[in-house]
Amino acid sequence: MKETDCRFHKLIMGRQPCCDKVGVKKGPWTPEEDIILVSYIQEHGPGNWRAVPTKTGLLRCSKSCRLRWTNYLRPGIKRGNFTENEEKMIIHLQALLGNRWAAIASYLPQRTDNDIKNYWNTHLKKKLKKLQGNEGFSRHGFSSSSSSSCKISRGQWERKLQTDIHMAKKALSDALSPEKPSGSVEFGHTSHAKPSGYVSSTENIAKLLKGWMRSPMKIPDSADSSEGGTDPMKQDKNSKETAEGFESSISDISQSMSPEASLSQDESKPNVDARTQLSFLEEWLFDKGLNQGKEYQLCDFALDENIVHYF
DNA sequence: AAGAACTACAACCGCCGAATT
DNA sequence: CAATTCGGCGGTTGTAGTTCT
Q: Closest by alpha carbon to A89, among A300, A304, A309?
């Protein structure tokens, strides 16, 4: 009922879909499209996604462009091969935060929410089920009924977390405000006010793009756009391979970026929040004696003292 | 060897909240 | 303050690849 109300409401409002269905391409991205998107972002920075299709001539909707960038093309992304630590992180965080993949992803800076979500759905869910079958997993705090070992309920905990995050956000923006040109926190929307971190990463992208363009691309002669002819899925495989090489080299470079740089290069990763949450998380995790991994580490990014101070 | 079943993951869809007009 | 736009999020789907029968 709420949903139908909502739809009706939207109908009245006349809100347009993010993309009109006609003339909008769907399905896997081709290397050409990736290049176009990356070079556009390289020039203008991420953000203002609405303008991307028109400015680039890509026959994709803005959402699709954003998704492609955040989940695949963005520098610093690691894909596949989740480490044991990452796995544990995800499991704990999922137990703690629920299916808030974006929040969980903020603790794993090199992973996208989509990736984590997929990994959870395909691997971890089953794994946990298995484990739960074997030995009451709940004693580790993974099930909702695990609150016995935790003094406060998850709901309470989350409320606390939220208020604390809010405080931290405020504190951070206060702390940062003197340095910031007014109103350009989200550099994506102000294309000329790019933080240096992003510039450096885009320079890397540019270099890589050059190299990539120079190397013989195995793009089918007919290119994709003609929808028919060659098998589009095979083309996609090609695209995956070429893009993968391209991307892994990007991520290699960007891995050496400073946390600040990686923070600024991606507005979709609320690392600030992540850091603030981390202090609680650490407490929670360690308090609960989740000491299964001697070498278990939460994450390698350091806690920002300014933020921790507020707690 | 062939087909069915399963797995992995990129991409899409719809909803929501924040920002803007 | 209401209307509208936009970006982000989580759930879901589609399909290529792999394993099983």
A: A300
Asked whether residue A26's C-beta has any atom of DNA/RNA strand B within 7 A, the reply is yes
Measured to protein CB atoms, the chain C nucleotides within 7 Å are 3-12, 15-17
Instruction: Please state, as a whole number, how many other Cβ atoms lie within 10 Å of the Cβ of residue A264.
Output: 22
Residue type, A6: C
Please tell me whether any atom of strand B lies within 7 Å of the Cβ of A2.
yes
Nucleic strand B under 7 Å from the C-beta of A114: yes
Strand B near-CB residues (< 7 Å), A 251-310: none
Q: Say which DSSP state A72 is in.
A: I
In this prediction, residue A205 carries a pLDDT of 42
Rounded CA-CA distance A79/A93 in Å is: 19
CA distance linking residue A194 with residue A89, whole number of Å: 32
Question: Which pLDDT tens digit goes with each residue over A8-35?
Answer: 333 333 334 455 556 788 888 888 888 9
Verify if strand B has an atom below 7 Å from the CB of A42. Answer: no
Residue from A28, A5, A46, A18 nearest A194 by CA: A46
